[in-house]
Amino acid sequence: MRWWWQIGKCNADVERELQSDLELEEEEQRERGASSEEAHYCARRAFGNTLLIKEQTLEVWGWLWLEGLINDVRYAARGLRRSPVFTFVSVLSLVLGLGLVTGIFGVLNAVFLDAVSARNPSDLRYVYPGDSDVSFSYFQYLSSAKDPLVVGMAAYSAERFSMRSENDVESIAGDVVSPNFFDILGIEPALGRSFLSSDRQGDQESHVVIISNTFWKRKLEGAPDVLGRTIELNREPFTIIGVLPSSYRSIHGYGMSPDLYVPVTQQLVGGLGDPDAGSLQLVARVLPNVTAAQLKASLLGIVQEWRQRYPDNKRCIGD
Amino acid sequence: MSSMEKGTPKRADLLQGTLDMLVLRTLIYGPAHGHEIGKHIQRTTNDFLQMQHGSLYPALHRLERKGWVVSKWETAPDRNREFKYYRLTDKGRKQLVFEESKWKQMSEAVARVMWPAAEEN
After folding, report:
1. Same domain as A126, residue A75
2. What is the C-alpha to C-alpha distance for residues A116 and A114, in angstroms, rounded to an integer?
3. Pairing between β-strand A208-211 and β-strand A124-127 as defined by DSSP bridges
4. Chain A contact for B101, CB < 8 A?
5. Domain count, chain A
6. Would you say residue A209 lies in a domain?
């Protein structure tokens, strides 16, 4: 196992060897009575071109390091062949180790390093309910979106869909979103179009779907004519109208990546008319330079209005 | 390839082998550094063989690579400075015997051609 440090060592060694012998020659010349200048000159002349000598000497070693490496590899290979169990276990642990590290990096990368896709993310604010609630009702979304400091507000809810393909049914992660969802984030689909307000929510069933790039490649073989095809979700046909770019990272962060997005409907999230029920998360694009505190104060006014109108928080929005 | 070019490496081989043998022979007396080896060969041949440093150092390293000599940095007894000393190995000793007999055969063969009368005497 000499090959890896041989190259550098060899170089310095030859240099030192020539230098020490050259100095000795010079000393001997001086001892013979030459002036130090003469001695220096004579020694140089006796030696000739030291650089060339060094080169020629190093050439002797030439590819020795490579030969050494090849020998080491050969030796190792023979050893491994002689003990197959050891080889199997070593290779297996290497494979598992590397796989694990790659896997962990994949997760860390998605969770901590990949930024959520959005245009001007500094103007985006997550809106959280203040009390023990974890999500908003549709009514709360609609009234919050009217806040004067807000340019636009989108609602989304992570759901699971059962998707039937031929004889197979599988559970697919998807987001139910307000139709302006991608407009608020500033995301354009790579193929097709985003949702329009005519893909309207509420009682009208629009049945359109935007799919993720991964889903497109994994489930639909990346077919270029995918737009207009239908997939069956929760036993209903949905027409594919768009495919997201491969660089798109979902707003959920933490590496969560829904396979598809459908506009919010009564059927999908339920309780749209119920101010007390809902599972929506909100994200708002605010006017430039609006702070979180300002937005909070402004939204508080709306909250108080809810409380006055629905003191027991039970009545329906249509009342 | 001309016959001239073909002949050149053979001549170099012969000279190279000869120098290797002379270096190995010199080391029979004990470890020596490059400068000493060169000086010894030069003095012993009454300066007939002028030691070319450009041949000597590559030769020393070639011998080391083949395992016929080993090298070590040691302080010279009279100089209080370190030099790279070469020492003959057992493998080198065997090689010297082999080179010597090869050289003998060669010089005897050459002598038979060159001086047939002397052989008859």
Report:
1. no
2. 7
3. unpaired
4. no
5. 2
6. yes
Q: Quick one: pLDDT at residue A205?
A: 62
A141 within some domain: yes
C-alpha atoms less than 13 angstroms from C-alpha of A14 in its C-beta half-sphere: 27
Choices 1.20.5.170, 2.40.50.140, 1.10.10.10, 3.30.2310.20: CATH for B3-120? 1.10.10.10
Q: Which of A82, A111, A134 marks a domain boundary?
A: A82
Domain boundaries, chain B: 3-120
Which A residues, 24 through 53, put their C-beta within 8 Å of a C-beta on chain B?
Answer: 24-25, 27, 46-50, 52-53
Give the pLDDT of residue B31. 92
Q: How close, in Å, is residue A246 to chain B by CA atoms? A: 57
Residue A296 belongs to some domain of the structure = yes
As a whole number of angstroms, the distance between CA B97 and CA B119 comes to 25
- B98's enclosing H/E stretch is helix B90-114
Are the beta carbons of B57 and A56 separated by less than 8 Å?
Answer: yes
Kindly list the residues from chain A whose CB atom is less than 8 angstroms away from the CB atom of residue B33: 17, 20-21
Query: In the predicted model, what is the mean pLDDT of chain A?
Result: 80
**pTM beyond 0.90, yes or no:** no
pLDDT at B119 over 60: no
pLDDT, residue B23, reads 92
Give the tens place of pLDDT for each residue, B42-94: 888 877 777 778 888 888 988 998 899 999 998 888 878 889 999 999 999 99
Beta pairing, strands A236-243 & A191-192 = antiparallel
CB of A144 closer than 8 Å to CB of A123: no
Q: What is the pLDDT of residue A270?
A: 64
Residues from chain B that touch A17, judged by Cβ atoms under 8 A, are 33-34, 57, 83-84
The answer to whether A20 contacts B65, with C-beta atoms less than 8 Å apart, is no
ipTM of the complex: 0.74
Contacts of B84 in chain A (CB under 8 A): 13, 16-17, 20
- Point out the residue among B58, B65, B84 whose CB comes nearest to the CB of A56: B58
When CB atoms are compared, the residue of B35, B62, B79 closest to A60 is B62
Q: Per the domain annotation, does A93 fall within a domain?
A: no
